[in-house]
Design goal:
It is a single chain. The protein is built from ten helices and eight strands. It is of the alpha/beta class. The chain has one domain: Metal-dependent hydrolases (TIM Barrel, Alpha-Beta Barrel). It has an eight-stranded parallel sheet, sandwiched between helices.
Length: 273
């Protein structure tokens, strides 16, 4: 049985989107008149950051994404400049497979020193096993940068087992790449957990897919507790940060495993680089 850590781990939200106000406003408009009123948090980055702190989050990964080629570099620079020295926000990088992938990566990971990468397959209309991303997978396999991948293409954020299979091809070709399956692949959670069990470097975050919490139990995740991360999707969710935290606590995990899900695994993924 796992043992509790000597000191409580920080609460880390490994899936938030603190983005430029103009981009955040465009994303909010994307959700449309029907869903937007149900979103619980303001989209402006400073206001959303304040809401995370008010909910008890002590550190968060801010994950950018782009719809088209040519947009990643400017967004990555904004992330690095805006959150330079921020004790709370870990700024992420992104890219599009139609970019100069080597150039974008060199700037983001070497020059800007961004510690985590985000891919959003539906927004950019590509697959995680797109051959143009081989440069990314080769690079992070050597460097240890975690890559959060939203593999699903549905407008509502859900993922199918077939889409997890595309990610599985990446994981088995690049076994040292630290891949984090966004939203635990909900509702294809069974396929996602099977992928974790068949690999050594794949993780999953338990971020809700509006308005669904990841359908997991203590039994279904047994043995994978240290491969799961807490996430809220703030500010673009209809599930409160507090409710997402409570979902983890209701699993009644061993204290050390619960601390891992709520923060220490996220810290370790960044520390291992």
């Amino acid at each position: 049985m796992s043992t509790a850590p000597a000191a409580a781990a920080r609460l880390i939200d490994a899936h938030v989107h603190l983005l430029p106000e103009r981009l955040s406003a465009a994303i909010r408009r994307f959700f449309g008149a029907e869903l937007a009123p149900a979103l619980l948090y303001p989209h402006e980055p400073k206001a959303a950051r304040a809401c995370l702190l008010a909910a008890g989050v002590q550190r968060c990964w801010s994950l950018p994404y782009v719809r088209r080629a040519g947009a990643a570099s400017a967004l990555n620079r904004w992330m690095a400049e805006t959150f330079a020295g921020d004790p709370v926000v870990v700024p992420g990088a992104t890219l599009h497979p139609a970019d100069d992938v080597a150039g974008v990566l060199a700037e983001a990971l070497d020059d800007l020193q961004l510690p985590v990468v985000k891919l959003h397959c539906s927004v950019g209309e590509y697959e995680p096993d797109d051959p143009r991303l081989d440069l990314l997978w080769r690079r992070v396999s050597a460097s240890g940068h975690p890559v959060v991948v939203h593999a699903g293409h549905a407008v509502n954020g859900t993922t199918t087992a077939m889409e997890i299979e595309a990610l599985s091809r990446v994981a088995h070709r690049w076994p040292d790449a630290r891949i984090i399956v966004a939203h635990c692949g909900t509702p294809a959670v069974e396929a996602t957990l099977a992928l974790l069990r068949s690999t050594r470097s794949v993780y999953a975050d338990l971020t809700p897919v509006t308005p669904m919490l990841a359908p997991i139990t203590r039994t279904t995740i047994a043995g994978l507790e240290r491969r799961l991360l807490f996430g809220s999707d703030a500010p673009n969710g209809t599930v409160s940060i507090e409710k997402a935290i409570a979902h983890i606590r209701t699993l009644e995990l061993d204290p050390g495993d619960e601390a891992a899900v709520l923060g220490s695994t996220a810290e370790q993924l960044l520390a291992r680089r």
